[in-house]
Amino acid sequence: xxxxxxxxxxxxxxxxxxxxxxxxxxxxxxxxxxxxxxxxxxxxxxxxxxxxxxxxxxxxxxxxxxxxxxxxxxxxxxxxxxxxxxxxxxxxxxxxxxxxxxxxxxxxxxxxxxxxxxxxxxxxxxxxxxxxxxxxxxxxxxxxxxxxxxxxxxxxxxxxxxxxxxxx
Length: 168
Description:
Shape: globular
Structural class: mainly alpha
Strand order of the largest sheet: 1-2
CATH superfamily: P-loop containing nucleotide triphosphate hydrolases
Number of strands: 4
Number of domains: 1
Oligomer: single chain
């Protein structure tokens, strides 16, 4: 099994991640950089791993772009969909786990463990829009998405994950 993240997962994509998380930019530049990192990630890590028959677990993928750049920033979803068709028209996750948590609780947890990046410094309304975009996408594809209540105890969440993964 390969465990990876986005943006990131390769040397180039990690460098792009640093820019996206820490430098001011327009939402268009942000989305283009995220998809540039995703393309490199797909080319160098994800596709070769899948071709070798290896499971890939990725923290975030295009649905996160829909949520953050679309829902949070207000980028037109058709623009994100066009980039998605260009970068990975033939590849979607088999399963997406949505760890749902209200933005206030999530902010308290983040503040306890690290300094906020450019996204984490956003106002509560931004995270309300991000959460709504995630929930909307999950409602539109219930066979792929599994919503997990992020307020539940970790052991309970782990059990639900293990049960669902065993069913794949």
